[in-house]
TrEMBL record:
Identification of the protein by name: Aspartate carbamoyltransferase
Gene: pyrB
Organism expressing this protein natively: Actinoalloteichus hymeniacidonis
Keyword Transferase included in the entry's annotation: yes
Subunit structure as annotated in this protein's UniProt entry: Heterododecamer (2C3:3R2) of six catalytic PyrB chains organized as two trimers (C3), and six regulatory PyrI chains organized as three dimers (R2).
Source organism, top-level taxon: Bacteria
Domain Aspartate/ornithine carbamoyltransferase carbamoyl-P binding: 2-149
UniProt-listed Gene3D superfamilies: Aspartate/ornithine carbamoyltransferase
Length: 309
């Protein structure tokens, strides 16, 4: 792998390679008091987040440090971006300063691809940590890792993705990855929160959540992204919760083996109730744990895989 910009860049073998490596890293570190591997010693990883983040940024930082890499977080508020520096100049500055990998989150769809095109000749790897409403590939991969742990192989499994699909890069990456791995995906949302052209996606589209839950192997709730909304997409938060929130009653409609996922942050009481978020079915904290190992796997294959092999 040269970069990780989109799930579309992966084939089945690539996806399984990353998931298998994440599983092996998780087993290797299990029970260790000192969670350190020498894999990225001498490598420099820089995170550049133009949008707020807790889970993604922290897990990439921990992943790099657990592999003995030097991890540097660029604070946009305290960088030259605040003086008007362009994304291109920021990228070339980081490459010139010695970065081996740049992990970027940006509000503009396609920003990670532009960054990679500018850095292609420098040897610096780029990881897309979320670009606008386009994609979030490492989130989809850690979700797939979590589902594999609970369900085994994903081929033939049916996964419901519920909520604000329109503004969700997580949904787009998950649709691509889950269908690549042979799963069936059903999107459940009000018509106002579905993208134009969703009929051409390899998914089933439904609007009635109750009618779907009894026939799925897993359900993934999405955050309602109010910061990306301009106008009224649904009458009220209460109305949304009534029709599309995962509450205790709906939790009981799921088959016994079906886990509940959420990429976070969770809006409790709106898209998911505390009873569902804190239930035994909930894999939310396991997703966060798996995020560290999955992102370790990504950094390994970008920066150390060929040398190790």
């Amino acid at each position: 792998m040269r970069h990780l910009l989109s799930i579309a860049d992966l084939d089945v073998a690539d996806a399984n390679m990353l998931l298998d490596t994440a599983d092996e890293l998780k087993k290797t570190l299990l029970g260790r008091q000192v969670r350190k591997l020498p894999t990225l010693r001498g490598r420099t990883v820089v995170t550049v987040f133009y949008e707020n983040s807790t889970r993604t940024r922290v897990s990439f930082e921990i992943a790099g440090k657990w592999m003995s890499g030097d991890v540097i977080n660029v604070s946009i508020g305290g960088s030259s971006v605040g003086k008007g520096e362009s994304l291109r100049d920021t990228a070339l500055t980081l490459a010139s300063a010695g970065a081996d990998c740049v992990i970027v989150r940006h509000p503009a769809s396609g920003a990670a691809h532009r960054l990679a095109s500018w850095l292609d000749q420098t040897g610096v790897a780029v990881v897309n940590a979320g670009d606008g409403t386009h994609e979030h590939p490492t989130q989809a991969l850690l979700d797939a890792q979590t589902l594999r742990e609970r369900l085994g192989e994903l081929a033939g499994r049916r996964v419901a993705i519920v909520g604000d699909v329109l503004h969700s890069r997580v949904a787009r990456s998950n649709v691509r990855l889950l269908t690549l791995l042979g799963a069936e995906v059903v999107l459940v949302a009000p018509p106002t929160l579905l993208p134009t052209g969703v009929g051409s996606w390899p998914v089933e589209v439904r609007h009635d959540l109750d009618s779907v839950l009894g026939g799925v192997d897993a359900v993934m709730m999405l955050r309602v992204q109010a910061e990306r909304m301009h106008g009224g997409f649904f009458p009220s938060a209460r109305e949304y919760a009534v029709h599309y929130g995962l509450n205790k009653r709906r939790l009981d409609l799921l088959p016994e083996h079906a886990p509940v996922l959420h990429p976070g942050p969770m809006l409790r009481g709106m898209e998911i109730s505390s009873a569902a978020a804190d239930s035994e079915r909930s894999q939310v904290t396991e997703q966060v744990r798996n995020g560290v190992h999955l992102r370790m796997a990504v950094l390994y294959h970008l920066l150390a895989g060929e040398e190790a092999e």
